[in-house]
Design a protein that fits this description.
This protein is mainly alpha-helical. Among the domains are: 43 residues, no CATH class; 48 residues, no CATH class. The chain contains ten helices and four strands; from the N terminus they run αβαβααααααββαα. The strands form two sheets. The protein has a two-stranded parallel ribbon. Strands 3-4 form a two-stranded antiparallel ribbon. β3 and β4 form a beta hairpin. α3 packs antiparallel against α4, α4 packs antiparallel against α5 and α7 crosses α8. The longest helix is centred in the last third of the chain and has 19 residues. The termini are far apart. The relative contact order is 0.04.
Length: 254
């Protein structure tokens, strides 16, 4: 019945629109129609629905984990399926997908190709050169060098440990992942030394002045620029008083 419904639908669409691609689940008879049967010479692209493929992949991993001695596969089920989705989203061809998919063999043996270190350094740069402030090229270069020196100085710092020698952990809720993550705390022992060096430079008469005047073209002169025009003080006063009265009436018991 599913095969017959597919044939009738495709025949109708071929007479009404220019059909380029057909996306279905992994139905054996429909795949035969597209690749070897009635529609093989029409040049239609037959794509498989990734949701069905991911679902079937999860079922197969679960079935394999029920075999004696293979129970550890169940703990990898979600990660393998997520990797499959990522490969489908990233790859532009079958060869690209195959190369990305084979990377799973490295992940399961604890060999990870990650850009976490690079992303950490990029976040560290924002501490010295915020995107909200415009810098001249020499100033920006100096801030980049300071960020690199600071990052290299403390990137290998030891992790904080408790009195019994165990590591200190902290929970952090990741908004995108919608779950808590665990990370270790690290010691910032280099900060007192850095502060002492800054103080010595200051006592020697070097360093930045305490007060600096803003340039005429400095964007900080304009302050906060809201996306809407500001109402008058009287309008705001009337709105806030009115809102306060309404809230007071709403909190009274009927």
């Amino acid at each position: 019945m599913e095969r017959e419904a597919f044939v009738r639908t495709v025949d109708t669409l071929l007479n009404e629109v220019k059909l380029v691609e057909v996306c279905t689940d992994a139905h054996v008879q429909i795949s035969a129609l597209m690749n070897k049967g009635k529609y093989k010479d029409l040049g239609l692209q037959h794509s498989l629905d990734m949701w069905h493929r991911a679902k079937n992949l999860a079922k197969r991993i679960y079935a394999a984990s029920q075999v004696k001695g293979q129970s550890s596969l169940s703990s990898w089920l979600k990660d393998v399926v997520n990797h499959f989705w990522w490969c489908c989203k990233t790859a532009d061809s079958y060869q690209d997908f195959l190369e990305l998919w084979l990377g799973l063999l490295h992940h399961v043996t604890n060999e990870h190709r990650s850009t976490a270190d690079l992303e950490s350094f990029q976040n560290h740069i924002l501490m010295y050169a915020s995107k909200r402030t415009a810098f001249s090229p020499p100033v920006f270069e100096a801030r980049m060098l300071l960020a690199a020196i600071d990052y290299n100085y403390h990137k290998d710092r030891p992790e904080l440990c408790k009195s019994d020698g165990s590591k200190q952990y902290r929970r952090l809720y990741k908004k995108n992942a919608r779950r808590y993550m665990l990370y270790t705390l690290k010691a910032y022992g280099y900060i007192p030394e850095l502060q002492a060096m800054i103080l010595q430079k200051r006592l020697a008469g070097k360093g930045m002045p305490r007060r600096r005047t803003l340039r005429p073209d400095d964007p900080r002169r304009y302050g906060l620029l809201p996306p809407v025009p500001a109402p008058t003080i009287q309008e705001l006063l009337h709105t806030q008083v009115r809102r306060g009265l309404v809230s007071a009436f709403q909190t009274e018991d009927p």
